[in-house]
Design brief:
The chain has about 325 residues and is of the alpha/beta class. It has 14 helices and 10 strands. The chain has 3 domains: about 90 residues, Helix Hairpins (Orthogonal Bundle); about 120 residues, Rossmann fold (3-Layer(aba) Sandwich); about 80 residues, Regulator of K+ conductance, C-terminal domain (Alpha-Beta Plaits), CATH 3.30.70.1450. α1 crosses α2 and α9 crosses α10. It is elongated, with a radius of gyration of 34 Å.
Length: about 325
């Protein structure tokens, strides 16, 4: 742009001096010439003709440069967008044992925040303009679509997912997503959001493993903060995903860990790890909320424990596959 005005200024001065025209006429002639719209009259004299030629060439060079800059800018944007899309596709294709969050509203964003705190792999699935904008703003791995379409769930990696969070604001959408996901993955862990008891009942019938009613949960927390503030404070410490003091963890007893058939006392869980086993979920879904030292662990049981981050890590090592421990 600076080069354009410098050329225009130089052409005006040249025409003014060489052709002995008024300053306004010289400026007009320079403007017409450099804009490549044509010449009103042929300038008299060699000096005027040379000035006209130089000014036309300058205009051509300037416009050529601007055109190439614009083309390069557009091409760069297209290439950058294509590279970003290829990178997104590679990340989606490489996902394994991840979580899918259907719905990036207030609940979905909170779930994603908790996953980020614990470095859990996940992908966001939503289509609304507001949700997509917010997801891109924080750099979420995003699939633009709705979980009500099987194609979108497949793109989000449903076949390889560890769990599905159904957090849409619409109960009907949540019901449809749950039905579709359960049909495709009978063993997938599905946690769904419901606006009320009726919706919660239908979601459970549709195949949701757990159903959360945000308003009911919020009401319970607020009531407990008033009636049992210290108990609620303790629960919040335990359930904080990244708490350094104490936290809950659940660990599955697998065949590979080699601990099946042994009792909690035989394993000396607390002595070896520092963590406490506070509950035991049996394979049939029954809960033992006060497991003693004589409680026998069986393959498929879920050990629910509480301890510090270091103690929980030690407990995970205790129940890790023997091959991994040996390696």
């Amino acid at each position: 742009m600076t080069a354009f005005f410098l050329a225009l200024f130089a052409g005006t001065l040249a025409f003014w001096q060489i052709l002995d025209e008024s300053l306004l006429t010289a400026f007009y002639r320079a403007t017409v010439t450099i804009s490549l719209t044509g010449i009103d009259t042929k300038p008299s004299g060699v000096g005027g003709e040379i000035t006209t030629i130089l000014l036309i060439l300058s205009g051509m060079a300037i416009y050529g440069y601007l055109a190439s800059a614009i083309v390069e800018l557009i091409a760069h944007g297209v290439v950058t967008g294509a590279l970003a899309e290829r990178r997104r596709r590679r990340l989606l294709d490489s996902l394994r044992d991840h979580f899918i969050i259907c719905g990036y509203g207030r609940v979905g964003r909170r779930v994603a925040e908790e996953f980020r705190k614990t470095s859990q792999p996940y992908v966001v699935l939503d289509f609304s303009e507001e949700a997509v904008g917010q997801a891109r703003e924080v750099g979420e791995l995003l699939v633009e679509g709705t979980g009500t379409r099987d194609e979108d769930l497949a793109e989000a990696g449903l076949d390889h997912a560890r769990g599905l969070v159904v957090a849409s604001d619409d109960d009907a959408d949540n019901l449809y997503i749950t039905l579709s996901a359960r049909a495709a993955r009978p063993n997938l862990m599905i946690v769904a959001r419901a606006s009320g008891p009726e919706a919660a009942k239908k979601l459970k019938l549709a195949g949701a493993d757990r159903v959360v009613e945000p308003y009911l949960a919020a009401g319970r927390v607020m009531a407990n903060l008033m009636l049992k503030p210290q108990v609620q404070a303790f629960v919040e410490v335990l359930t904080e995903a990244t708490g350094d003091d104490f936290r809950f963890e659940e660990i599955e007893v697998t065949r590979a860990c080699g601990q099946s058939g042994r009792t909690i006392g035989e394993l000396r869980v607390h002595t070896r790890t520092g963590a406490y086993v506070v509950a035991l979920r049996k394979r049939d879904g029954a809960f033992d909320t006060t497991p003693g030292p004589d409680a026998t662990l069986e393959e498929g049981d879920i050990v629910v424990a509480v301890g510090t981050s270091a103690e929980i890590r030690a407990l995970e090592e205790l129940f890790a596959p023997r091959e991994a421990v040996a390696g």
